Amino acid sequence: MSFQPRRMALRALPLLSLLWPLLFPPISHAHPAEPADASNGRFYGMLRSRDLTPFGFLRLDMRPAHALTIEPGSFAFEAELGYQNTWALSENVEKFLKTLEPSGRRAMTPQLIQEIQDLPGENYMLDLESATLDLAVHYKLSRRWSAYAIASAVSYHGGLMDWGIERFHQALGFDTFGRHAVARGGTTLLYDLKGAQVVMSELPRPQGFLDPTVGLRYTGIKLPGRWQMSAEIAAKLPLDGTRPLLSTGRTDIGMQTSVRRLGERNALHLDFAAVYYAGEDLPSPHGSQIVPTLIVGWERQLDGRTNISLQGYASRSVYTHVQTDLEELLRDKFQLSLGLRHRFDHTIVSFAVTENLQNLNNTPDIGFQFGVGWVPTLQQ
After folding, report:
1. 326-348 burial string, b = 16+ CB within 10 Å, else e?
2. CB 116 within 8 A of CB 122
3. Distance in angstroms (rounded) separating the CA atoms of residues 69 and 49
4. What one-character-per-residue DSSP string does 223-234 give?
5. Whole-angstrom Cα distance, residue 315 to residue 293?
6. What does the pLDDT average to over 215-222?
7. Computed from CA positions of residues 344, 367, 302, 77, in that sequence, does the dihedral angle turn out positive or negative?
8. pLDDT tens, position by position, 291-317
9. What's the pLDDT tens digit per position in 234-282?
10. Under DSSP, is residue 184 helix (H, G, I), strand (E, B) or coil?
11. pLDDT of residue 308
């Protein structure tokens, strides 16, 4: 795997520029202000955003663990809206589209699709946006055990964010990646691999419900000092069989261990997950495999109710069992998220932005998450 630190740094620049004033506030020579009121401050844990990789969310995705604990016998509710833009393509397709850029944009016609398919070797192109909505309910069974269920839906559509992303790339001197050869707002799914030949210029079912997830969590694991640990298991249940772009029709099972160290104002979070992914047939055939994931997060209390979080995500590509030699699909996924959360009594609102890093053709270009959580009775 080739490591590209300069390219990674450029991709992370928007997130780090937002974080810099918080990490390094300006020095003031005036009298120090009163300390922030942290008497009712809490750590919220990891950003609860899921992996937004197109069709990666068809498999079970263990959500990053939260750090809030509710009273036994009570409920908590979450709603998470994720929105992402993806422009991913193989090297041959990118080179071909760049030769077309001088003559302007064009629609993804059957003729253009055929020209891409006629390129030598294996090729793929993915141009779309998607919005996912997760609704979760948690129930505290006892002081240590809790259960949860998540209902999810997705909507696929064209590129509402294409214009802004292209202007951002131009402003920072990024490559065009062939975007300027194709009309904005389109949806294209093209796989011409050894084990898959799929072409969709209009998605057959642009929206629908995904498979629900149920899980069980235990928080009674003792660690020394300020370290805490929890563990959970979950399953994705296909209730309505195989549905193209909505369900693999197969049951996935996962386990996750979460370790955290809660300080006075800062917290370190680590999540280790392994999911048995049973595979799928569409949009490209996948065999069953174990997909490991590591998430490392840092959280800081800005005041008694507002926290900022920065977390990195690393996971194996689900294409490792697809018959293909394209390294772009086989490389691991790396993403960086920056988020802000604020608590209004029993309601927690959050906003986060996610950028892909290093391997730019197997994850979304950029994603946003908006979350609302209602926690009526917090455990002391």
Report:
1. bebbbbebbbbbbbbbebeeeeb
2. no
3. 19
4. -STTEEEEEEEE
5. 4
6. 92
7. positive
8. 999 999 999 999 889 999 999 999 988
9. 999 998 888 888 899 999 999 999 999 999 999 999 999 999 999 887 6
10. coil
11. 97
- Specify the pLDDT at position 31: 38
DSSP string, 68-130: --BPTT-EEEEEEEEEEEEEEE-HHHHHHHHHHGGG--B---HHHHHHHHTSSS-EEEEEEEE
DSSP 201-246: SS-S--EEE---EEEEEEEEE--STTEEEEEEEEEE--SS--BTTT
Q: Give the phi and the psi of residue 22 in degrees, each rounded to 5.
A: -80, -35
d(C-alpha 20, C-alpha 6), whole Å: 19
The percent of residues in the chain predicted with pLDDT above 90, rounded, is 41
Tell me if residue 145 falls in helix, strand or coil: strand
Q: What is the pLDDT of residue 183?
A: 83
| Contact indicator for 335, 354 with CB cutoff of 8 Å | yes
Give me 328's structure tokens. 């772009």
Q: How does DSSP classify residue 333?
A: E
Angle, CA 135 vertex, CA 246 and CA 343 arms, to 5°: 145
Prediction pTM value: 0.82
Q: Beta-carbon neighbour count of residue 45 at 10 Å?
A: 23
* DSSP element (H, E) containing 11: helix 5-23
**253 membership: H or E segment, kind and range:** strand 252-262
Which residue's entry shows tokens 């993806």? Answer: 86
